[in-house]
Amino acid sequence: MISRRDFLQVGMAASAIVGASGFGNWARLAAQQSLTQDQLLEFDTFGNVSLIHVTDIHGQLKPIYFREPSINIGVGGNKGVVPHVTGADFRKLYGIADGSPSHYALSSGDFSSLAQTYGRVGGLDRVATVIKAIRADRPDAILLDGGDTWHGSYTCLKTQGQDMVNVMNALAPDAMTFHWELTLGSDRVAELVEQLPFAALGQNIFDAEWDEPTELFPPYKMFERGGTKIAVIGQAFPYMPIANPGWMFPEYAFGIRDEHMAAMVEEVRAAGAECVVVLSHNGFDVDKKMASVVPGIDVILSGHTHDALPEPVQVGETIIVPSGSNGKFVSRVDLDIRDGRMMGYRTKLIPIFSDVITPDAEVAALIDEQRAPYLAEMSEVIGQTDSLLYRRGNFNGTWDDLICDALLSERDAEIALSPGVRWGPSLVPGQDITREDIFGVTSMSYGQAYRTEMTGDFLKVVLEDVADNIFNPDPYYQQGGDMVRTGGLGYRIDVSKPQGERISNMTLVNTGEAIDPAKSYVVAGWASVNEDTEGPQIWDVVESHIRKLGTVTVQDNTNVDVVGV
Amino acid sequence: MELTRRKILAIGSGTLALASFTGLPAFASLTDEAIAALTGGADIGEGVVVLTAPEIAENGNTVPVKVEAPGAVSITLFADGNPVPNVATFNFGPLSASRSASTRIRLAATQNVVAIAKMEDGSFQMAKANVKVTIGGCGG
Q: N or C: which end of chain A has fewer CB within 10 A?
């Protein structure tokens, strides 16, 4: 095994993930045989405006491991195109060498061994270093946060988002949009938003009663930078009250509202904006469709579906820049804005290799200050893992399998259901599992683990409905998560079929018997969107299960048979 | 335990909220009949009526719908998956500044909302929007 120090000195292949302008750089950087902070930050400053994009940080203040998906199926017009290309196919598409830093950062395959070589990614103190470097280059760069920031960790849950607000404020963003933030409850969100020293945007956040824009979340903000006027329009996650508990934020209605987006683009253009940027939490495929429907958007900074691409995707005259998740990447987007339009762009997806980028001392101290009151309780080691624990992928990940096993055994159920969310850091084989790690894949404001009965027929309705939210060929009907994870239940899914016909061969894994539509089964699950859900918190259920196991080993899951790809 | 709809609503799973039934219900033909009765079987054009409805309903019991048709004397809304598809008819006098209306409707399941506008010259125009009523997926 190459030690960290060896790696830093000799390296394997350098990575600067340079989009648009920098395609031929792969080989050159690989030939340099080293990876340094300077290389990661290297950028030929371009045009007159710089945007910096971070998104879907999910409360990750410290460096983590994060494995990208091996299964990310595209349907309809998005079949077989990015981001629905994974693993070796992804590397081939972008000319990424196997075993290179870019392989590790951007694609799945050989993750556990590459993690030993390249180490953890992210950490907002490293992100701070990158942002400061870009600002040193372009002092009036606009920093935009795509949301899903105030959620996803032990400290974030305990402080109700305050830890993230404090640290992000130190990075001084210019604007932000929202998704999981709303699950803190509308009162807490209002309290936090009112203290923000930057804009909280959402052109699609409406007052639920009056069906009109809110005062708390204005649709856009105008910036005068680089001798031009730039409008940033916020687009919050469109399906919040459906994918998350609407009762926690009953004052607000959402939706894609592309007709209102079009009206906002016209409004900002009329007000003199020469460049229109959408800070979006739509998800990548929804952004692509929106770019094709709404004219006049120059740049969509894309979040929600956690995709990271080394170069933007262009739809018409709009570029779409997805910047990954969990603090793993920062996007720099330089624009040449002249004569009322975008004349050119240069982008770079900067991977935050935590061992290569020097932490910003001030932000590192601020992070430790947030964590200090909770450090003892969250550092407690609950068990160890022999297996790679990860979540990303359209169907079960090993973390989900472990959570489902915990539900089956701790709640004495025949079938377990676990939500198909895309957040949650990975653990590599040999790592301790701490309480913080468990919260990293479970923490939320509605984590109660229920136990109930469902008929076979109803279970099929559940699977069909969730499947249609992922595999509906029209992106506007997709909600951007993954398939609900099942424990104790196997099924076949044909992703090419319409709703109601995708799921078949539902069986109880233990006995191999077919699910009887009329029979009731004992089902345990968590993250119900319904008010007054009863049960222990999922992190307590998982902790108790891991304690009993001591060392966790998760076998490959073969209970979902995917066809029609 | 017998699972009633209310119990299902109360227990949920990963993200259960509303149970929906797949495919379009049989009430669609009732809508065709009602539209035929309204238009007398005349041809119906498209492109004038702008119907704004959410792609996915946040609450099937109260779905905001807006319809606009410059030059219309009346606009009739249908929900083709509801047991009674006729929702409302809005009439506009010659002095109406804008030929638009907003309301909220109840949708029993995933279905089409159809707007038929009768124009000043007696011709008909339509627009259609599919509104999904779902239990939801789980967000990123």
A: N
